[in-house]
Amino acid sequence: MRSFGGQLKQLSFWAENAAPIGLVVLVIVFAILSPTFLTLGNIKAMLVAAAILVILAIGQSFVITTGGIDLSISATMTLGAVGFGLAYTAGLGFWLSAVVAILTGLLIGLINGLLIATGKVTDFIATLGTLSVATGLALIVSNGKPITVTSVELLTLTSGSVWIFGYPIILAAILGVLAWFFMFRTRFGLHVQAVGGNEDSARANGISSTRIRMAVYLISAGLAGVAAILLVARVGAAEPAINTQYLLNSIAAVVLGGVSLTGGKAKIVGPIIGALLLTALTNGLTLLGVSQFYQPLAVGLVVVLAALLTRFQKK
């Protein structure tokens, strides 16, 4: 029995630390296999590339902590990007266009919140529906064509950096710190975890699960709006076609980061490291010349392994 208990403790350790351990292993392996992997230029490029996924993973973490899931997060980002592009071409300028992108995201978040918290529609169905709605709206208002955006501010956002830390990852880090503070140092964060842990018990203690669920979907969608701005900056245009890779990877990063899919277990740093791990994995495979067809397979295997390990997390 002691041996069995020791094995469980060992599995629990791996489950709790899957993201940081996996990231370290990947860095060592790719550094050995590719001499360019740990160059300052490549590290900077990876961090910039990871910024969007980090922000989406932070938003998804709040939702999943309540036991929900946001399948519309990538489509919300796409619609926010299109909103940014349309606003900028209409002459609103960078900052007002950025506000439009975030407000567009918040609108989808509000719909999700109302459907799930008030309408009692299951999160899977509600966000699957808004995924389709946001995707359709992005294609309709843009006529299915990319909206080219040429902006000094976007150029600065893309190329500016402090040493190897580009402005996008700095922004993502700031949002990560704020998310950690609100999740672990405020009553709101405690309520988010309480609703995910036991909704009936949370209600009995005077916590409004309706308001909490509304709030987390607004946070997720609002951060998707912020990610939309970085997406436009990265691509140089507002692309109306949804990138489902961001949806899958945002959930994958949260799972890798040790957040329980059943709710009640919150983490912010873990999902951020999970997002960095997935970015490093894709980057390393690309440097090694591995076909892009195999990259989703590699990501999927890593996520399935992490999901299996979560069964052994400490409660």
TrEMBL record:
- List the Pfam families: BPD_transp_2
Kindly report the protein's main subcellular placement as a broad class.
membrane
Asked if Nucleotide-binding is a keyword of the record, the answer is no
Mind listing the GO molecular function terms for this protein? transmembrane transporter activity
User: GO CC annotations?
Assistant: plasma membrane
Q: What lineage does the source organism belong to? A: Bacteria, Bacillati, Actinomycetota, Actinomycetes, Micrococcales
Chain segments annotated as transmembrane: 12-33, 45-64, 71-88, 94-117, 124-142, 162-183, 215-237, 243-261, 268-287, 293-312
> Protein name, please?
ABC transporter permease
Q: Where in the cell is it found?
A: Cell membrane
The record's InterPro entries line, in alphabetical order, gives: ABC_transp_permease (IPR001851)
Query: Which PANTHER family does the entry link to?
Result: ABC TRANSPORTER PERMEASE PROTEIN YPHD-RELATED-RELATED, RIBOSE IMPORT PERMEASE PROTEIN RBSC
List UniProt keywords, sorted A-Z.
Cell membrane, Membrane, Transmembrane, Transmembrane helix
Annotated CDD domains: TM_PBP1_transp_AraH_like
Q: Topology in the membrane?
A: Multi-pass membrane protein
